[in-house]
Amino acid sequence: MKDRIKTLATALKAFGDQKRLLIIKMLASNMDEIHCVSDVAKALGITQPAASQHIRILKQIGVLKENRKGFRVYYTVDTAVLQEYKALLDDLFKKAFEKCDRQYACAKCPYNAGCGGK
């Protein structure tokens, strides 16, 4: 990922909504089942347009994959992408306690690929 901090910030913004976290939990904990927007809406007690909006945001960050079957679209969690976000977050916490000798000028740092800036 090119800009790790920006990517992580975008993901955290998407993860920062309780309904979206519930959608991830619902789909990830039932990987053997398939769910469409109406299933998600019903399970969460929200409207179908609201469920569609939440799903759209999760698709934008790559966490959800869609699979079309006829007129219906079913969603699953892309566990590889979810693991990438976890790794970025783990790396952020690991690096957070290391002193930056470059005044956070990531573009000029020879270690920027491993720091989290880029």
Commentary on this structure:
The chain has about 120 residues and is mainly alpha-helical. The protein has one domain (about 5-115): Winged helix-like DNA-binding domain superfamily/Winged helix DNA-binding domain (Arc Repressor Mutant, subunit A). Helices cover about 55% and strands about 10% of the residues. The chain contains 6 helices and 3 strands. It has helices at about 5-15, 20-30, 35-45, 50-60, 80-95, 110-115, and strands at about 35, 65-70, 70-75. It has a 3-stranded antiparallel beta sheet with strand order 1-3-2. The mean pLDDT is about 85.
CATH class category: Mainly Alpha
Radius of gyration, whole Å:
17 Å
Provide the CATH superfamily.
Winged helix-like DNA-binding domain superfamily/Winged helix DNA-binding domain
Give the overall average pLDDT. Answer: 87
Q: What is the subunit organization of this protein?
A: single chain
Largest sheet: 3 strands, antiparallel
Helix and strand composition category:
mainly alpha
CATH topology: Arc Repressor Mutant, subunit A
SSE string, helices as H and strands as E: HHEHHEEHH
Distance between the termini: 8 Å
Q: Under the CATH scheme, which architecture would be assigned? A: Orthogonal Bundle
Shape: elongated
Number of domains: 1
Number of helices: 6
The percent range for strand residues is 5-15%
Biggest sheet: strands side by side, in what order?
1-3-2
Low-confidence stretches: none
User: Could you give the count of β-strands?
Assistant: 3
